[in-house]
Design goal:
Layout: H1 2-18, E1 27-42, E2 50-51, E3 53-67, E4 70-87, E5 90-108, E6 116-138, E7 141-146, E8 159-172, E9 177-187, E10 201-215
Antiparallel strand pairs: 1-3, 1-10, 2-4, 3-4, 4-5, 5-6, 6-7, 6-8, 8-9, 9-10
Length: about 220
């Protein structure tokens, strides 16, 4: 499924970019940062009572204009995800961080004589786990442990594919572009890799970011 999402995004970008009168209009390079409100969907019995975890997200981005109304966005983000869980006698927090690369097809909505430009987008992202920790309290355990610690031994998938949907506002000023961004990151990969523990665990993340970009073309 995630390969299909990525393929459609790339195909649309190539078709738009190859049309004679929609050659690249602009390129913007910038930085952005904000917060993740992360949780998971799970049908695993031991992870059934979860709540959200707030983490940092931020990195670099590039927007490639394909048409005055259409752009292709490529990002490289450090993204903290995970969840909190409370069961009888034990509380825990799963802290995962990813290097995430979203590829987004953007629709720019111009407003005449206004520096404000609404933006809607969708696409796909792949995330590569950069760290994984579990904080536990109860049942004789207390403290933060690495996911690969023998006491934890969290068998998991470390590459996470997702579909991304969102929108925001660009404030197009004379020499910079200020942007506000809200998106939903729908995890498509089952993170549960335990051979003796069937069930699905998938990331679910709301992301809110602000950024500044610099037009270079």
């Amino acid at each position: 499924m995630f390969r299909n999402v990525l393929a459609v995004t790339c195909a649309l970008a190539l078709v738009l970019g190859s049309t004679g009168n929609v050659a690249a209009q602009d390129i913007t390079l910038g930085v952005k940062g904000g917060i993740n409100v992360a949780d998971v969907s799970s049908d695993v019995e031991d992870i059934s009572n979860t709540s959200s975890r707030t983490g940092f997200v931020g990195g670099l981005y590039a927007d490639f204009g394909l048409h005055p109304y259409v752009a292709l966005g490529l990002e490289g983000l450090y993204s903290q995800k995970g969840f909190k869980s409370a069961e009888v006698g034990v509380t825990g927090e799963f802290k995962a961080a990813y290097i995430q690369i979203p590829l987004l097809l953007k629709l720019r909505i111009p407003i005449q004589d206004s520096p404000v430009r609404p933006v809607l987008y969708g696409g796909a992202a792949v995330g590569f786990e950069s760290s994984c920790k579990v904080e536990l309290e109860g049942l004789g355990l207390s403290g933060e442990f690495d996911c690969d610690d023998p006491l934890i031994d969290a068998e998991r998938t470390t590459t996470d594919w997702s579909a991304v949907f969102g929108g925001g506002l660009d404030f197009v000023l004379s020499s910079v572009v200020i942007n506000l961004d809200a998106r939903y990151d729908l995890g498509l990969t089952n993170l549960n890799n335990e051979t003796e523990g069937p069930g699905s665990i998938k990331n679910r993340t709301w992301t809110f970011m602000a950024g500044v970009g610099f037009p270079v073309k």
